[in-house]
Amino acid sequence: MKVVGCDCGKESLYVCVLEQVPKDLKAFSRSYKPNVVKASKEGIDWLLEQDADCYVLEPTGSYSYLWLDQLKKHGKDVRLVSPIRVRAYCRYKNIFNKADKPDAAEIASYSLENYSDSHAFLGTEQMELRELYLSLKSTVRNRSPLTNRLGQRLTYECPEIAPTVEKCQRLWMDKNPPAILRRVAEEGEDRAPYWKQRQDRIENTIGRGLSEHSKELARELCNFHRMEYSLELKIAELMSSEVFVKYQFIFDQFCLPPKTRAAILGAIYPFESFLNEHSRQIIEYIPGDFSKRKSKLTKRNRSEASFKLAVGIGKVQVQSGKKLEWKAGGPRHVRTAIWIYISVVIVILGKNNRAKQDDIEKLVDTLGNEKQSHWLNEQLINAMAEYMKVPKHVASLRLHYKYARPEANDKLRRAATASRFVRSLYKALVKEFAVK
Known about the structure:
The chain is α/β, with parallel strands linked by helices. It contains 18 helices and nine strands.
């Protein structure tokens, strides 16, 4: 067995070739001489000449795409490893420092020792989905300044349509840019609803009239919307793969929008990577001052903690001198996607008109139980789900947002509900993938 462990840098690749697991990995990682391969044709040729059974990389963003594409192109077996698992493996081997040289040896040793365990490696689908989602997010972000600039110009060129342009949105998988933008850009004849009204407002404006610069801005925005549609097509095609069927079924129970699904899938697939080699949760018991057990040990679910960190809801302890604090850890883009989901699906869509709010209060008064939290009351959740025409998980989260921390401000309540959502999602995935 021959494995090539690769640690990707911006311009080079640290490579460690192993044929057996070192007896003392810590000593080996310090003493061996790594091969530093430059991002060039000669470097790629040298890597291919190794003719290993598999090449293993950490998915370190755009740095690894070049090597991944070239190795796949030449039919090599390429595997990806989770940084979380590799770091846990290093701690088990009594290695705590992190640097390019030992990282390559650690990746190779981990891969060689877990070669037959498919759960020890990540699927390339995760990396592709994450790249597509970040590209889509970047495109949307780059579009915003143009929208703001066009809106500012229309306030004095054609104030009648300025509010419509600033608020116009294109739905997921809608092929055409918003009709109002196409009209400002003069892209063909627009036969969409309200076409005549838009035409009349532009022709009879009290402003200066549309300038060529504003029309060019509108054309650029139309191009951005078409780029977004192209990326959405690729994301939708990738998420329709059979490997994601079980995940999609669970996501349906939470009414997750497509973009949120893509962000989460790009961070957690495959879910088995959060479990041990026997597909069970990783549970540890450590000494705790406030433990109620006779043994004075506190239970720690390492799988759940890793999952929360992967989706950006986990906490990381940071200590500097006498200052000790906890900060948000994990990818920010996934945390943002979850926050938007909570704000829209749980908070905004959960707020109905006053009459419906009165009906909900009656349900809570009738079925509520002082000894049980509303969001855990199965009878109340079922009644809420039926009344609001939503799945039970969504009804439970709406109850949690409204009643879990009524004294807290809106931001803290949304954060608490986001944490509740992640835990509920984790439990649903455990029920589906973990061995009982």
